[in-house]
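Technical annex B. To support the medicinal chemistry partners, we prepared a structural model of the target in complex with flavin-adenine dinucleotide, based solely on the information shown next.
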Amino acid sequence: MPAPDSYDAVIVGGGHNGLVAAAYLARAGQSVLVLERLATTGGAAVSTRPFGGVDARLSRYSYLVSLLPPKIVRDLGLDFAVRKRTVSSYTPTVRGGRATGLLVGGDRTRDSFAALTGSDREYAAWQRFYGMTRRVAERAFPTLTEPLPGRDALRERIDDPEAWRTLFEEPIGVAVEKNFTDDLVRGVVLTDALIGTFADAHDPSLLQNRCFLYHVIGGGTGDWDVPVGGMGALTDALARAAREAGAESPVRAPAPPLE
Ligand SMILES: Cc1cc2nc3c(=O)[nH]c(=O)nc-3n(C[C@H](O)[C@H](O)[C@H](O)COP(=O)(O)OP(=O)(O)OC[C@H]3O[C@@H](n4cnc5c(N)ncnc54)[C@H](O)[C@@H]3O)c2cc1C
């Protein structure tokens, strides 16, 4: 059958966002073409089999799932699963000439805070702070698949003036310095705010707050889960859903730059 010379939608790039859009549009009866310049779809969410002779698929770049709404998995009937992690991070350091570190995640977290900082104070602050982000997560995450709420509507929904000020109005550095005294603990909290940005903790642009929020609202809990089969398992399932709904997705098909 000859390829059509026009489509209802042409999507440039077969990363997870392009594939989700393609699958929904095709299921809504639109004719869809996804152009992907590389040899495979998936973008930065792909898997590889790095060990010869071992049939294990590992994520190549992006490797943890938090922001994928379960509704998309259900709507598109994706064969995709995640597993919980017990350890979120380990940050090594040297204190008083002795090698030590901070373990976050699992039953040993409290002891790790106490061993590093010498008391339960920082751990209690951690529990309070992330209790607050979790309450915001429960209310903010569902909005990701709803028409985008305005600022006032979101503030009303979050319904916690202290949390609103801390996360949406003041640079996150203010709350981090107010709540935590240990420099390493502050650094671990700020990882989620600064990673991938060129902002600092007190940047008036609040870009760091936006980055922090994306890291703590996922799934309505802020949990980051491990995809079974790596991220490629997700994008392969998305590509399949798009294809089965009728979307065409040629690879090695770069879209020309826009004039
Ligand atoms: C090292 C690394 C680690 C990360 N870790 C995580 C993580 O653990 N969890 C997480 O949620 N996020 C993570 N991210 C971020 C996440 O990978 C991205 O947000 C996500 O991949 C964006 O998806 P996308 O579909 O918008 O774009 P991409 O994944 O970038 O896909 C874009 C696609 O478009 C194609 N393309 C571009 N231009 C053209 C053109 N002109 N014609 C045809 N095709 C084109 C590209 O080849 C690519 O396949 C990480 C990112 C990196 C780089």
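Notes passed to the chemistry partners:
The chain has two domains: 9-83+228-244, 89-220.
Residues 89-220 form one domain.
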